[in-house]
Amino acid sequence: MKQRIRRNRPAILLRHVLLFLVAALAFLSWVFAGDTLVVYSGRAERLIQPVLDAFQAESGINVQMLTADSTALINRLQMEGARTPADVLITNDAGTLERARELQLLQTTTIPDLATTIPSRFRAPDNSWIGLSGRIWVIVYNTTMVRPGDISSILDLADPQWKGKIAIPSAGSVYLQTGVSVIRAVKGDEVTTAFLRGLKDNAGSFVYGKNRQIVAAVARGEVAAGLVNHYYINRHLAKHPDAPIAPLLTDQEDQGMGVVLNAAGVGITAQTKRLAPAQALVRFLISPKGQRMFANVNKEYPLNPHVTAAPELLPLQSFQVALVPLSRLAQLRNPTMTVIEDVGLR
Asked: Global pTM?
């Protein structure tokens, strides 16, 4: 004789109620997401959030940000395809944005007066990405250990006299990859390979994943000099004004390569369903107000020529910059990684 199963009706009812609530919450989150601009950001939250907060306060447009490594975000956009919730992509490297353009993950951005707001050398040829702020790759040196005249070119750091005296970024640093790409484009593979071998020998164990670690090591006198983006020096000095460190701009002599310049930038995703608010955010980011925030909060170079850099920075027009187009950085990246790996940088 089969035993009759007695069902617990209250438990079943509770389960249905819970399932309904879950479905309702999912639906509501989807509805509200339709009114929210979604930004994928390869920049640290502390660097970009103040600017997004200012835009939200001024425009009334809600902004939700997802932060991750820029390359990871490109991979995510590829995987999500037409289902991506992302409306805007912000990265810390123009080469990554150019890669996104090549993969057709971005769309041409139509912004009034763009030509007079951001110079063409800081934009994609089709305006699918736009530079926001510039940073230069400089040598940070300990003023008690190095005289400015001791180093005239970034290539000097490969000289054996600096063995055990310099700190460098790790091979995974997008800033190292960009710098090496520019050196390759200007000087060729033979010079670049010799430079990297010298860097590896001279740095030894002083290889860091973060620019701020390099600056701190130089400030402590553990090494005499290091390679960093300029604004990490300004941030360190803001907290430790007596630190014996200073930036050194190299390769400024006649026929010199010039310093390496890279740019953070923005693009509107090809799949956005919120084009108008996405364009509004881009307009804000390149406006004088948005650009001044990059200049004052982050100590980066505003790319809008009508906005001046922070007073502690040399004007961008006052020094020589390497003339490698930012749009070439994506094309140069893979061959550069091969050279870095062949040398054995870690």
From this structure: 0.84
